[in-house]
Amino acid sequence: MSSHLQEAPAVLPFSGLTQPANAAAWLDRAREVAAVLAIDAVARDRAGVLPTAEVQLLKDSRLTVLLGPAEHGGGAQRWETAFQVIRIVSAADGSIGQLLGYHLFWAWAARLIGTDAQIAAVEQLYTSQNLFFGAAVNPRDNDLVAQDLGAELLFNGRKSFTTGASVSDLLVLEGALKGSEVHVFAIVPTAQEGITFTDDWDNLGQRLSASGGALISGVRADWSSAAGFIDKEYQPLVYNTLNVPLIQQVFSSIYLGIAEGALAAALEYTGTRTRPWPYTSDPKESASEEFHVLEGYGKLRSALWAASALADAVDAELAAVLHAPRAELTASGRGEIAVRVAAAKQVAADTALETTARIFEFTGARATANNVGLDIYWRNVRTHSLHDPVAYKRREVGQYALLGLLPTPSWYT
Asked: Is the pLDDT reported for residue 4 higher than 90?
C-alpha cells in the first residue's frame, strides 16, 4: 500500500499575517514557520504522507515569494536572506527545507536562463499568485524528449527524480530536443492530463521531499516559453551557467540547517535526559559535567560555526553575482565563485554528517529510541549528500589550489 494513503499529523495553519518588510523580519518569519514544523517533524517523517499541508504552510507564510518582485507582491529580498531562510527551515525539517530551497531556485531559474520577456512573465505569474514550483529535471536521465511541432513543443518520457513536483502548481520540464543534443526547459501547469507521478519515493531520508518519478505524455508548451530561446535559437550568457553553483549552495544551506537542528536537539536531550556514567574514578552528578561530553560538543559546535562562517561568506559572494547585471559575468568570475561554492558544499556536507552521527555519543543509548527521533537528522543528510559525489567537489578545489584550474561548466560543476 502506498505510504501516501496513511493519515498524516496535521500541520498548523499559518495565515493572516502581514508580509515581512525587511531581511530581519523575513528571518523571524522563517523561525516562526520552523517552530510550527518542529512540533511534529518526526511524526510526519514516520507517516510519510505527501507534504501538501507543509507546502501550504510555506505559501501561507509567504516564504515562497521572498525573492519575488515587490511590484507583484513579492519580498524583493536578496539571496543572502534566502540561504539563511533555507537553513532555518531545514533545522526544523530537512525535507521541507529542501522543498523551499528547490522552489526558490526554480523561481530564480527564469533569471538564470530566460529572456527578459520570459523573466518578467514568470516572476509576475508565480509571485502574484503565490504558486509553488516543482521540477522534472534530472540531467542523468535522457528519457524525456521534446519534439518540435512548429509553434509548440511536445514532451514525452519520464524522469526518475522530481522533487516537489507532485505538490507543485508549476512544473519545470527539461528534455532533449528530438534529433539533437540541445536541451530545452519549459514551465507548464502541474495539474493537467499527461503528467502522472509514480509515487515511488521510499528512501532512507528526506522522506517528505516528494522526490519520486514522473511520467510525461503529450504535454505541450509554446516554443515562446522555452527558456532562453528566441526564434528557436538559444541565446547563451555566462550567467546561464550559475545554475549549478546556485543549487549547490542551496544544498549547503540544507545541510547546515539540518546539522544545527541536530545539535540543538542533542544538547537539549543531554541537558535534560542523559544520565552520567557512574563507573569511573571521577563520577559526575550530571552528564553535562562529564569531560568527554563537553569536549565532544565543543568540537561539534566549533566545526559547525566554522562551516557556517564559510557558507556565509560564499552566500554573500554568490549573491553579489546573482544580483548583478547578467551580462557582466565573465567566465573567470564564474569559475572563481564555482570553486568557492564547491569548497563550502564539501565542508557543509562533511560537518553535517559528523554532527548528525556523533551526537549519539553524547546523548547515550536511550537516545536511539524511535520516539526520540534523533535519527531523522543523519538520515536526511546522508540521503541528500549523495546527490552528487562530494569527492568531485574536493577535486575541483584541489585542481584550483594546485593547478590554478577553474571548473568547466557542466550539469554538475
From this structure: no
